[in-house]
User: What shape does this take?
Amino acid sequence: MAQRGANPSARPPLPWHQRKPLRALVYHGFVGLFALLMLYPILWLVGSSFKPPDEIWTNQTAILPQEFYPQNYPNGWAGFGGISFTTFYRNSLFYATVGTLLSVSASAVVAYGFARLRFRGRRFWFAIMLVTLMLPTQVQIIPQYIVFKQLGWLNTFYPLLLPRIGGSAFFIFMIIQFIRSIPRDLDEAAMIDGASKIGIFRLVILPQLTPAIITAAIFSFYWTWDEFLVPLIYLNSPELYLVSLALRTFSDPSGQTDWGAIFAMSALSLLPVFVIFIAFQRYLVEGISTTGLKG
Amino acid sequence: MAAATLNKAKRRKKSNFGQDNLVGYLFIGPWLAAFLLFTFIPISVSLLLSFTDYNVLANSGEFIGLDNFQRMFFEDRRYWRSVNATLKYVVFSVPLRLVFALGVAMLLNSYRRGVGVYRAAFYAPSIIGGSIAVAVMWREIFGNDGLVNFALNLLGIDGPNWLGRPETAIWTLIILAAWQFGSPMLIFLAGLKNIPKHLYESAEIDGANAWQRFLRITLPMLTPIIFFNLIMQLISGFMVFTQAFIVTQGKPLDTTLFYALYVYRRAFEQNEMGYASAMAWVMLMVIALLTALVFRSSSYWVHYEAGDGS
Assistant: This one.
C-alpha cells in the first residue's frame, strides 16, 4: 500500500487543471485579476484625488500619482458659495443618524407585532406591507410634496424624517424573519412569570435582536447617506444640502473645473461607507444572504 | 372528554386572540399610521391628480378626464422615447447583472481560500453604487477626454464621445449597472451553499460533465433564487434615476431619459404634477403587471424542493 502511494507512476498523472498548486494559481490569477478590474475605478478615483491638476489629464490611467498632491482635499473642502463641506457633512450626519434611529427602532417594534402577536387583520396588513416594497416612489412623492409645501415645510428636514416614523418595510421584514428564529419557549416562560406582551418585547426579544438591528442600521445608514431624489426635491437652499446634493452642485461641469477637488470630495464621501463596510462586513453579508436585501 | 378539551383549547385560543388585538395594533401602529399618511393617501391622491391638470405653482387644477393619458400615449413623443430608454436599460442591464452575479458566485463557491477578500472586492462597487460620487466618477471615466478614451488613445484608437452619442450613451449606464452585481451575487452564493453536495457526487459518478452538472443540478436548484433576484432587479431597474440624472442628464436626444427621470422633470421642473401623476400611475400598473407575469410564469420554471417528488 505504502509503496504504491510513494510511486507516482502507479497513477496516471493528473491533467494540469486538476493539479492542486497549478489549479490554485490559475484560480487566484483569474479571480484576482477580475477583482482588481472591478476595484480599478474606485482605486483610480482615490488615486486621482491625490494628483496635481495637470497630472490628472496627462497620467490618467495610473492609480498612483507621480506627485503626491493632497492639496485637492482642502481645495475641495472649501465648497462653493461660501459654504464649506463642514456644513454638508454636518447635515448628512444629522440626517443619516436621526433617520436611521427612527427607521430602525420603529421597524423593530412593528416587526415584533407582526411576528409574535395574533390580532385581527394581521395577515392582511402583512401582505400590504410586502406590496409596499415594490411601489415606485414616484406615485407617493408628488402628493407628499404638495402637502408638505402647503405646510411650509420645504427646506426643512420634516418631509425627509417624518415618513420614517413607521419604519421601513425592508427592515420590518428582515427583523420579522429574525424574530421567527427565536424560540417561543422564552416568550412562554416570561409569560408564565407574568410578563405582558410589551414586557416580553422589552425583556426577551429586544436583547436578542442586536445582530438584526445592527444589520438594519448599517443598511439604513448607507441608504440615507446616499439618498438623492427626496433631498433633491425638499432641500433647495445650499446651507441645508446633504453631501450627495453638494457633490452634484460642486461637480457641475459648467461651474467647476478643478477636477482634483471634485475627485477628492467624491472619494471622501465614500469613506464613511467603506469604514462601516470593513468594520461590519459579516453583518452585511449575512443580512443580504438571509433576507435578500438589496445593497 | 376529548371534545371538551378541544372546545376549551379553542376558547382559550379565541380569548388569546382577542387579547392581542389591542397590543397588536399598538405595536404595528407606527407602521399603520405612516402607511396611511405617507403611502395610502398619497397614492390615492396621485390617482385623482392624474385626471387633472394640477399645477403646483398656481396650486390649481381642473378635472380633465383622460386627457393626460391621451396626451401621454398619443401626443407626447418624449414619453415614448423615455419608455424606450427604460425598456432598453432593463432588458440589457438586468440579465447582465444576474449573469455576472451567478458566474462570480459560482467561481467563489468552487474554492475556499481567499473567498472573503474576493467577496468584499466584488461587493464593494455595489455598496457605493447609488452614490453621487460614483455617478460623477462615471461621467469622467466616459467623458470625451476621460479615462476610457485616454486608455484607447494609448492603444492608438480614437475613442468616440461616449456620453454624447445616442448609440453609446445608454451603454455607459448599462455597464455601470452591470458593475454593481454585488447583492444578487451574495444571494446566489448563499443559495449555492444550500445545494446538497451528494447531488453533484452522484452526477459525477454517472459521468455527467461540468456543463451538464450546471444545467441539470445547479440551475434548477437555484431557480427560486433566480426568481427572487429577477423580481428585485426588475423593480429597481424600472426605477433607475440618479445615475441618468448625473451621468447623462437624459441626453443625448432623450436616449437616456429614463421613466423616473422624465416623471421628475415633468413634476418638479415643469410643475405639471397632474400629468406626472398620470405617468407615475402607468409606471405603477406596468410594474405590478410585470411582477404578476413573472409570478405567474414561475410555476413553469421555478422548482421548489418540496414539490419536486410529485
Remarks:
- DSSP finds 13 helices and no strands in chain B.
